[in-house]
Backbone:
C-alpha cells in the first residue's frame, strides 16, 4: 500500500498522507444528492476502512489496538458525529443536512479479530459500523475468519452487513458473466444466512469500472465503495464511493485527525469516465471544479510512482499531465486543495491496469 505525501507551502506545511485516493463523479452514474450541488461540510461524510485489529503479522491490513483505541477517543472528544452508512446515504439522497465532521466506519473481510477486538470497543463507544463480507471464506470456515453465527450476532445488534462478493476476486479480470455470478452467489448466501439481501457492496481491492458499476446498480445495490481515499458528498457517484484506509503505518492520530476533518473536492466531467485502463496508458486525466470551491490553481495532484504531477488549469478545468505509463495493477492520482479552517479538500481516483 503506497502513500504519497504532498507538501503545501505557505504559512503551514502539512504532510497529507494520500493513499488509495479516489472518487468518481461521472455523468453516467447516479449521484447521491441533487445534481449541480456544491458539496459542503453539511452534506459530506468521511468513511474509514479497516480490515484487521491487533494482528501484527499483517501490518499492511492491520490496526494496532492502541491506535484503534486512540482513534475511538478522538471520535468521542473531537467534535465528530458517527452515523451508520445507510443513514448518511439517505440524508444525502433527500437533501437533509449532515452534522459537520460526520464519520462512518466500515470493516472489510470479516476477520475473526473484528468480532474479538473491534466490535466490543465500538459497541462500548456506541458507534455503528458496516461489515463487508466475502461469503466463500465464511462458508469454508477458513481459519482467522468470523463464523455465520458471529455475523448474525453482529447483525442482530444493529451492525449493517454488506457484500464483498463471494470469492473476493479482481473483478476487472473476470468476464462480465462471471462478475454477475460472483455478485449473485454472495447476495444469495447473505440472504440465506441473514434473512435479507445486501444493499451495500465493497469492491474487492477497490477495483471497478463502468460496466461493473452498471451490473451492481442493476442488482439493486444502493451504493458501492472502493478502497480509495476521499470524502463522500452529495454529488458523489453512488457506485464509486471513497474511503480512507487505516493500517499500522497510516493509523497515527495526526493522520486520523487530518482525514477525519477532510472536505470534499467535488468535480464533474471527468476524463476518462472508465477507471479500467485498456488503452492510452497513461490515461488522459482531467476534471471540472465548481467555481464556488475557489481558485483551482491551488489544487495539487500526485500520481502513484510519479510524485507531484504537472497540472494545467483552464478556467475551472484541471488537466493532469501524467509523465509515464502505469504498471499493471492499481494506480492512483490524488488531488488536494487547501480548504477553510485549516482543513483540506480531497479528491482522487484509482485506475486499474489489467495484467
Residues:
Amino acid at each position: 500500500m503506497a502513500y504519497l505525501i504532498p507538501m503545501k507551502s505557505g504559512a503551514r506545511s502539512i504532510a497529507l498522507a494520500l493513499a488509495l485516493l479516489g472518487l468518481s463523479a461521472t455523468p453516467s452514474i447516479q449521484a447521491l444528492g441533487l445534481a449541480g450541488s456544491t458539496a459542503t461540510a453539511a452534506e459530506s461524510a468521511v468513511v474509514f476502512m479497516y480490515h484487521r485489529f491487533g494482528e501484527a503479522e499483517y501490518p499492511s491490513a492491520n490496526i494496532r489496538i492502541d491506535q484503534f483505541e486512540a482513534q475511538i477517543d478522538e471520535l468521542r472528544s473531537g467534535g465528530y458525529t458517527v452515523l451508520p452508512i445507510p443513514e448518511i446515504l439517505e440524508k444525502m439522497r433527500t437533501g437533509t443536512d449532515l452534522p459537520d465532521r460526520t464519520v462512518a466506519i466500515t470493516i472489510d473481510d470479516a476477520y475473526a479479530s473484528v468480532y474479538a477486538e473491534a466490535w466490543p470497543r465500538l459497541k462500548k463507544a456506541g458507534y455503528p459500523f458496516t461489515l463487508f463480507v466475502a461469503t466463500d471464506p465464511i462458508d469454508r470456515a477458513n481459519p482467522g475468519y468470523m463464523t455465520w453465527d458471529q455475523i448474525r450476532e453482529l447483525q442482530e445488534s444493529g451492525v449493517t452487513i454488506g457484500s464483498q462478493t463471494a470469492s473476493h476476486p479482481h473483478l476487472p479480470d473476470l468476464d462480465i458473466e462471471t462478475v454477475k455470478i460472483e455478485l449473485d452467489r454472495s447476495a444469495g448466501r447473505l440472504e440465506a444466512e441473514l434473512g435479507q439481501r445486501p444493499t451495500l457492496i465493497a469492491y474487492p481491492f477497490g477495483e471497478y469500472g463502468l460496466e461493473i458499476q452498471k451490473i451492481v446498480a442493476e442488482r439493486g445495490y444502493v451504493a458501492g465503495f472502493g478502497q480509495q481515499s476521499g470524502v463522500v458528498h452529495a454529488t458523489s457517484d453512488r457506485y464509486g464511493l471513497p474511503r480512507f484506509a487505516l493500517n499500522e503505518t497510516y493509523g497515527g492520530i495526526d493522520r486520523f485527525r487530518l482525514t477525519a476533518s477532510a472536505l470534499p473536492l467535488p468535480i464533474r466531467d471527468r476524463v476518462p469516465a472508465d477507471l479500467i485502463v485498456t488503452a492510452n496508458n497513461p490515461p488522459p486525466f482531467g476534471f471540472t471544479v465548481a467555481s464556488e470551491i475557489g481558485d483551482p490553481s491551488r489544487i495539487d495532484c500526485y500520481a502513484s510512482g510519479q510524485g507531484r504531477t504537472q497540472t494545467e488549469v483552464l478556467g475551472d478545468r484541471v488537466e493532469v499531465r501524467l509523465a509515464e505509463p502505469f504498471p499493471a495493477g492499481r494506480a492512483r492520482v490524488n488531488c488536494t486543495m487547501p480548504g477553510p479552517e485549516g482543513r483540506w479538500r480531497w479528491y482522487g481516483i484509482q485506475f486499474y491496469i489489467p495484467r
About this structure: The chain has two domains: 3-15+29-265, 270-353. Helices lie at 65-77, 85-94, 112-125, 135-139, 148-156, 176-194, 210-218, 253-260. Confidence is low (pLDDT under 50) at residues 1-29. The first helix runs from residue 65 to 77.
